[in-house]
Amino acid sequence: MVKIRTLAPLVTLALWCGAASALRRPLPQMVAVTRRAALSGGLSAVAAAAVARPASAGAAPAGEPVVSADELAYWRAKLPKAQYRILFGRGTEPAFSSPLVKEKRRGTFACAACGTSLFASSTKFDSGTGWPSFYDALDGVQPVSDNRAVWALIGSEVHCAKCKGHLGDLFMDGYLWQTPTALRYCIDGLALSFEPAPAAA
Questions:
Q1: Is it true that domain 4-56+78-196 has CATH number 2.170.150.20?
Q2: What's the whole-model pTM score?
Q3: I need a labelling partner for 197 at 20 to 30 A (CA). Which of 21, 93, 108, 152 fits?
Q4: In what order do the strands lie in the sheet with 166-171?
């Protein structure tokens, strides 16, 4: 099984090298193209062959935080099965399945397992990919790799710095959406909880 959202780099390159025609979109509108639409333009086979990686099962990537058997047992008993699969099974939820994709209120997105603050709502943007997307993170987010070249080439999984739960992926394709950091944190909604900001007095 392939994580479609990890195909960012080659899809991005292809977009600027002729995908505009394939998708019947004028080039100036490419900054708003979604990953789902890009793959529908016939690019998925080429990109998948080059940068596809397992969605969950199998060996964890180098640098993956180690979660002990006792910790896994604790979270398995505490979390709903779907959340456990995402956070501690390195799963991926279906695109557009999380209500947090459309969450626009002021507040903080936290880890659904341990409650660590992860993202400020001010950094959330609509990527059109079907997963909550952010252009910056708080200190509670830990990439598996700190090598920006890796982020640009294949992306990096990101985890909660406290409980080590898997959150999603980090890509350096944010310029497609003109984000101020050129980054895109593509996060599973089931890995998050949302804490609205207090109402103004």
A1: yes
A2: 0.72
A3: 93
A4: 124-125, 133-134, 184-187, 166-171, 156-160, 141-143
